[in-house]
Amino acid sequence: MAAELAVHRLPPPLSAKVVGSFAYLTVKDRLPTILTKVIDTIHRNKNKFFEEYGEEGIQAEKQTISLLSKLRNELQTDKPVLALTDGLPDTESWNQYLQRHQGSEGDQESVSWFKSTWLYVECYMYRRIQEALWLNPPISDYDVFSEGKTQSFFESQQAVITLCTHLENIKERMQELSKNQLLEHFNKLLQVSLWGNKCDLSISAGQDNSQKISPIDSLRSLQPFILVDDSNMVWSTLISAQTLGQSGKITTGRVDIVLDNAGFELVTDLVLADFLISSGLTREIHFHGKSFPWFVSDVTAKDFHWTIRQTMAANHKWMSKSGFEWQNYMKEGVWSYHDHPFWTQPHEFCDMATDAPDLYATLQGADLVLFKGDLNYRKLTGDRDWNHMVGFDCALRGFGPTPLCSLRTLKANVQVGLQPGQGEKLTSQDPDWMTSGKYAIIQFHSTKS
Ligand SMILES: O=P(O)(O)OC[C@H]1O[C@](O)(CO)[C@@H](O)[C@@H]1O
Ligand SMILES: [Mn+2]
After folding, report:
1. What cofactor is needed (predicted)?
2. Range of the domain at 84
């Protein structure tokens, strides 16, 4: 890997300072659009705040909107990024990160929305939204993105029912399935979880993203759009995590799923996780979500538990049966939900071992970690402008707590581990292949690099 890095000088992180780049268009257009939608959402809920909190609620609504309008102006006029003032547990680490970014001379101007790195300013925007709410109790814990996330769930009901019915059919016959049949079902549900990632609200700045067609029937037609498919490595990692105990009983491994979006995507992850447990392939699943609302549609603890409750309450027997099963897994500790602050900070994952050694150690306890989505891929690879043929292990720059796999639909112009000529061919066929969400990867890395 070191040799490869020597050959491929470390490319710069993507930044909006490159006029016309995808980062530039995101910072110039999409982030202000998202902020405007947040302001509109808060304004639209003004009466709700009044009903719940009286005059205080109105004051808080007004104050929050003025803070967010100020934030939008800073963003649109490329002002210096400001230190956080809300005194939350992570405020210090955010402000230290900003100081490091400003360099020793404390050059404030150099860290502005269009001059700094895209990954940093985009993460920072969501943390500033949190600050605006946090500074204005009693609406501090209002989730400005909840309407979009719940809508994505409700509008995907048909697909959810199809998925839960499909899972039920497998579970009914689980004992008689051959290993090949098990592998086939695994590959299908891995791909369903992969394509569930198309449904994220930040890329569409909140536009409709519900899943309308059958998630199973569409797999065959989507197959050609998977640019890297290491699913066989994922399968063999699961199998090799199984050990034969003294008593002749097979014990299986632990899989961690670093979640991305709520709504339909979360259901696809829960279905995959249920299959891993009910097939006996895995003994335990740790889910990792966000500790506050993030990138419009990312999963918070509230979303996670709400989704299980909603599935239980469905008036479709296989859907509600799945929901009760999932609640049971949580109760028994077979499944657990975690939300370390690191996931809502701007760090590249190669810094995790130093910046969040406790989280790194947690992930080392898993036999496999699945990273869902585009933002996680950007952080795995440092959001850098890599040559597409650079190896995934090289781009990870030493991050490797345990064998890992990225399940990602491409929504940002970062992609490594392609074959010679593959990137060029895609660019000639489909110029937006890196950002349209049409293409995907199942990209694996074992720690034995
Ligand atoms: O929900 P996902 O798959 O992480 O997608 C979020 C991505 O969408 C974008 O907002 C699109 O540019 C990226 O900034 C971000 O990485
Ligand atoms: Mn997301």
Report:
1. Mn(2+); Ni(2+)
2. 12-134
